[in-house]
């Protein structure tokens, strides 16, 4: 199973780089593009294309909803019990599909939405910064997936590398990392107005 978050309707380049290291020989794969209640756009299609190029066979795909990791009021608390129930049913369906198909090469491929060329990756303006509360422990630097925080100067952020994943904020033991509160509050209000209505996970078998 390969799961990636949806960033800007695509999968983050860092996730793609990691996935490219996986190679299969007609190996069945289940692909999940997790989105924050706006849209997953071309992310699942991109994942299917990468899987096929790497010798994997996308046997089933899903686009589950999770709390938005920048705009936390959107899809707050997702996945919830209803999501979990649907995901469990999906897992059963995938199991049945694979069990019933002895020959992987004749497996029917799910038809997911998305367009080629994929949408351009947008510039996401939210880059976390450290406040004076930073205790220089370096946890954020060690856990940043793209090495955007120098371990010897964890109060800094290399904005050209940062992918706005917010991991540094969630792991900081001193609560020292954050976004500009006013800019975030304004953006969140607009975003929640446009994309706040509940969306359901989508499944493709
Ligand atoms: C930089 C960034 C871009 C995002 N872009 C989208 C998007 O295009 N559509 C969407 O529905 N959710 C989007 N989200 C929300 C995430 O997909 C959702 O919160 C996510 O699956 C949680 O993943 P995480 O493990 O990175 O926190 C974005 C989140 C971040 C941090």
List the helices and strands and how they pair.
Layout: E1 2-5, H1 13-19, E2 27-34, H2 43-53, E3 56-63, H3 81-100, E4 129-130, H4 139-143, H5 167-171, E5 177-178, H6 181-195, E6 202-204
Parallel strand pairs: 1-2, 2-3
Antiparallel strand pairs: 3-6, 4-5
The chain binds flavin mononucleotide.
Task: Write structural notes for this entry.
The protein has 205 residues and is α/β, with parallel strands linked by helices. The protein has two domains: 2-121 and 199-204, no CATH class; 129-178, Alpha-Beta Plaits (2-Layer Sandwich), CATH 3.30.70. Helices cover 31% and strands 13% of the residues. It contains six helices and six strands. It has helices spanning 13-19, 43-53, 81-100, 139-143, 167-171, 181-195, and strands at residues 2-5, 27-34, 56-63, 129-130, 177-178, 202-204. The strands form two sheets. It has a four-stranded mixed β-sheet with strand order 1-2-3-6, with helices on both faces. It has a two-stranded antiparallel ribbon with strand order 4-5. The longest helix is centred in the middle third of the chain and has 20 residues, at 81-100. The model has no long low-confidence stretch (mean pLDDT 96).
């Amino acid at each position: 199973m390969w799961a990636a978050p949806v960033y800007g309707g695509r999968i983050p380049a860092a996730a793609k780089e990691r996935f490219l290291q996986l190679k299969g020989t007609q190996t069945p794969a289940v692909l999940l593009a997790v989105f924050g209640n706006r849209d997953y756009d071309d992310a699942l299609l991109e994942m299917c294309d990468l899987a096929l190029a790497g010798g994997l066979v996308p046997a089933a795909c899903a686009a589950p909803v999770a709390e938005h990791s920048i705009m936390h009021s959107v899809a707050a608390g997702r996945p919830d019990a209803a999501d979990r129930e649907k995901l469990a049913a999906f897992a059963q369906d995938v199991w049945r599909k694979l069990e019933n198909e002895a020959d992987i090469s004749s497996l029917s491929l799910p038809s997911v939405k998305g367009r080629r060329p994929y949408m351009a990756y947008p510039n996401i303006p939210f880059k976390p910064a450290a406040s004076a509360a930073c205790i220089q422990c370096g946890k954020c630097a060690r856990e940043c997936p793209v090495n955007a925080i120098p371990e010897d100067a964890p109060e800094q952020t290399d904005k050209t590398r940062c992918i706005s994943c917010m991991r540094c904020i969630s792991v900081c033991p001193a609560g020292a990392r954050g976004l500009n509160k006013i800019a975030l509050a304004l953006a969140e209000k607009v975003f929640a107005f446009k994309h706040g209505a509940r969306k359901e996970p989508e499944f493709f078998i």
